[in-house]
Write a structure and sequence with these properties.
14% strand; alpha/beta; 46% helix; cytoplasm; two-stranded antiparallel ribbon; binds adenine; ATP binding; 322 residues; ATP-binding; helicase; 9 strands
Length: 322
Amino acid sequence: SLEKSLRPQTLDEYIGQEKIKRNLAVFIQAAKQRQESLDHILLFGPPGLGKTTLAMIVANELGTKLHTITGPAIERTGDLAAVLTVLGPGDVLFIDEIHRIPKSAEEILYSAMEDFCIDILIGKSEETKRSVRVPLPPFTLVGATTKAGMISSPLRDRFGIIGHLEYYKPEELFQIIRRSASILDTVIDDEGAMEIARRSRGTPRVANRLLKRVRDFAQIKGNGLITKAIADQGLLALDIDSEGLDTMDRRILSAIIDQFRGGPVGIETLASTLGEGRDTLEYMVEPFLLQQGFIQRTPRGRIATEKTYQHLGRVISERRAV
Ligand code: ADE
């Protein structure tokens, strides 16, 4: 395509997630040496940390084809059977949001993963209705989901390799931004790259998006070079604050402070107050705020921390006693 891909194509090109990378390199090499399909892989982690990229890299490193589908796109068992029956030997099937597949499809996955076969119901009338066993080639399922606990244990137990993706360190995002800038033919200095890295919520997808927008500011408001000053200007315009929090992050933190006197507040209550889905809040937004120490979980719900009061310029003495 015209758009140059910022996605790394190999494990060597992939920056960060060192533990997963190191382990995958061994498992991939071992499977190739034995001329077997790689064991099934389950990836956990918030959006934008590179689960899809890893699935693409696994297929690329194996030298096989990648097939992709998302959990919610599988409405009936036939949707799943359709992708399973076109797999070639050793191919990778990536199911994003695997926790959202219907139970009936999940049961088909069990035999597909374990025995490389599926049972399909055929026949229209009661007399002709029967089940046919369809063999599948050995393949590798890569499943991705946002959080442990969203996936049933029978399904989880059928994955031989489990990886938890973590938020990236600013130094890792710095390297990713330098690499992306080079692919985009954009000049960025170290201070500019570090400023974007620090304010990217630990997330490469965010870092690459902010890089592209800051590049626009550099081109139109500057001389094309991305400096710290240009990064500051761009990020301010995008409502990304000094800690990298976006509008949604600040809405959540402000709601805990203003409407629940700092908490504790249950996730369900907080979600409905904000008009957001509970899962969006719990698995996509909150993990970063927890990791950065803006929110703490208590048995009675979420509370805003001292750091949050300071960052938002609020008075902590107005907080409810916890
Ligand atoms: N682009 C997006 N994520 C990346 C990663 N983890 N390594 C290198 N480039 C990336």
